[in-house]
Amino acid sequence: MYLRFGWVVGNVGLIGSLIIVVLSTAITFLTSLSIAAIATNAPVKAGGAYYMISRSLGVEIGGAVGIPLYLAQAFSVALYIIGFSESLNLVFPGLDVKIVGLITTLALGALALFSTKATIKSQYIILAIILLSLLSLFFGSPLENVDTEPWNMAIKRKEDFWKVFAVFFPAVTGIMAGVNLSGDLKNPARSIPKGTFLAVGVGFVIYMVLPVMLAYNASESALINDPMVMRKIAFWGDAILLGIWGATLSSAVGSLLGAPRILQALAADSVLPKKLSFFEKESGPEHIPRAGTIFTILIALVCVYFGDLNLLAPILTMFFLTTYAVLNITAGLERFLRNPSFRPKFKVHWLFSVLGAIGCAMVMFLINARATFLAFLVIASVFVYLKRRGFKTAMGGVRKGVLLSIIRYATLRLDNGQDAKSWRPNLLVFSGAPTKRWHLIEFANALSQRKALFTVATILSDENTSQEKVQDYESHIAEYLNSKKIGALVRVIQSNDPFIGAQHLVNAYGLGPMVPNTILLGDTEDSSHMDTYCKMINHIYHSKRNVIIFHDEQNESFSSIEAIDIWWGGLKGNGALMMILGHLLKSARHWSRLKINIKMVVPTLEAAESAERNLIEKLSKMRVDFKMNILVAKEGENFWSILNQESKKCSLTMIGMAAPENGSFKEYYQKLQQNTCDIKRKVFVLAAKDTEFKDVLT
Questions:
Q1: 425 Cβ contact list (under 8 Å, min separation 6)
Q2: What is the per-residue pLDDT across 383-435, written as a single tens digit (0 to 9) for each?
Q3: Which of 79, 633, 680, 685 has the fewest CB atoms nearer than 10 Å to its CB?
């Protein structure tokens, strides 16, 4: 304000300066509205902006903003103290800037460690000094040779309007001082909105008056070239120096009080590593976070000692503005989604918050585009790090609300008809306990490619199990899958007969059109279960779902598969579905080298030539990188003997299964098991009734 305002007025004139003040204040005012809405909705504890964001958008996003915000606050302490020391050196040239800075840092740090209340009370003294400097300026006298035309934009501007705007804007970014001390306020819901609006309002009045005074009391050249022009205009010039010192020290104190409380909140939410959990501790009747304060003082001392923070200053400003933008987004989303938990006493239309967020983003790029990208990169890196840690804390309400809104929108616009071009398997996997049939989950995960849904289902045979235990079992399975980096839903139900329970789940599971279209299950060789097992397959088929039965005697990881044999009988039904499954597996990220062999048995050489031409044409149209192998049956050989011989050593074999259209399916399935007894790892595939999978391939 003291050193740059004259330069602003000199470059863009009075009207231009007032426009800049109005635009800048508008952005901070919109942000203040968002802060007021969040602060009056629920208690705001220690951490201020971090606490507000993390409770709405989640710990990961809160931490991604909070950690850089803490560093920005800590570095800002040094930045303001260096400014104070350099301005003091102008009056007393013999002083060593570094020594003055170090002593000032230690003095302010000792005050912050001694008493928060005393530190805050010192701000009143500083405020009085700043008021004295403004009064001195108000009663000042014009300089000689004032030739400025105050009510016109400067005719010969040296700097672009938006560049001047970018220089001025940091002067209105101090609205978070009260928010950062939220944990020390008796009534944050009342104090934060009141203090924030008061700061914006008072700042707006001062910034609107100062350009008028400067424009009428100094020439354009003096305003541009003399940083201490206010001192020359003022009634008592040294009062301006006191104002400069007061403003820098006040800002340093505000950052010194706010930074440790952000660090404290980060530690309390386990955002910081466990070794740094001591930052959460408080001391004394005023609950001072002494460890965080000492750490912040040390950072400031190091920065003051090494001196110039000009390179960091733009990035620090970006961190502050990013925080403002995210606060606006938080309030806007809360209001737009109308979550039942969001009931603020101070109501703001979501559009105002959106405008505030857009304004912050625009200003960031105007100030320094490179610093903006670097700040975004830092925040994104922190977010990825925190995301990988897998916090067990509840997801922020806004994040869940957004996802639920998207799900609702998409679900209502989906229909039950098949879209060949976007078909993917929505799998329901009857794995039981995951550790028993892990190959089923691996297979489903490979087919889904993290782009389709699949659900791991378990049926408990004991119907007397309490719902609490069922839910606990569901949670344990979900945690286990998450630890294995498997993105799947989990469903646990109770049924005395697991096969009847499976049928009930197939009938009932799903949301609208988002029902499983493919059922994946293990094989059974238990003769006592064969009847009910086959009835279950029959039920699934007539429910128009695909059936995939995975038989595995090797008990090896599915990732060990190197090649797949697909025994093909044409592009209809099972053949087309098996081709799709093969393509999905081969296109998976880690399986680009998977070999897929399309095998077909014909009776004669002439038939082989015809089948080869036909298959080449179809594979070309399907645009798949599969190998083909046409086999001619020798005398005395049948299809099953050839299959067992050819695929005996293959990693995985896919075989089409006949539709259970008659009452003899049990006998058919048992014979199918016998005919493929030499194949240790195989998949039986039964395409859904009335589904044309060939349309997916063409």
A1: 447, 448, 452, 454, 517, 518, 546, 581, 584
A2: 888 888 766 555 556 767 777 777 777 777 776 555 556 678 889 999 888 87
A3: 633
